[in-house]
Specification:
The protein is mainly α. The protein has one domain (2-66, 73-96). Helix content is 80%, strand content 0%. The chain is built from 3 helices and no strands. The radius of gyration is 16 Å and the shape is elongated.
């Protein structure tokens, strides 16, 4: 029962974090193609908030990964790692719950 509860809680947190990664990706594309402007206070606030959440998590991944030029693959690595954690917790919950 404990592992099932832990799996559900961590699953929700992982879903939220993956959503924030996707928001950062989409927003970075919109900013780079000048669809939205960073001079807009709302856009700038969202951008700062998303980066404040993700930067402490992505920084260690970026240090480990090799340089790939202009392409930042650390968000994809984060999503894959979070998915692996979710799978492991699901299997633990099924085995012990």
């Amino acid at each position: 029962m404990l592992f099932l509860t832990l799996y559900e809680i961590v699953g929700y947190l992982i879903s939220i974090l993956v959503t924030v990664v996707i928001v950062q990706f989409v927003l970075s594309l919109l900013i780079s193609f000048n669809v939205v402007n960073m001079h807009n206070d709302f856009v700038a606030a969202i951008w700062r908030a998303v980066n404040a959440i993700l930067e402490p998590i992505l920084r260690p991944i970026r240090r480990i990964m090799p340089a790939t030029g202009q392409i930042d693959l650390s968000p994809m690595v984060l999503i894959i790692a979070l998915t692996i954690v979710q799978i492991v917790l699901k299997n633990l919950a099924m085995a012990y719950g």
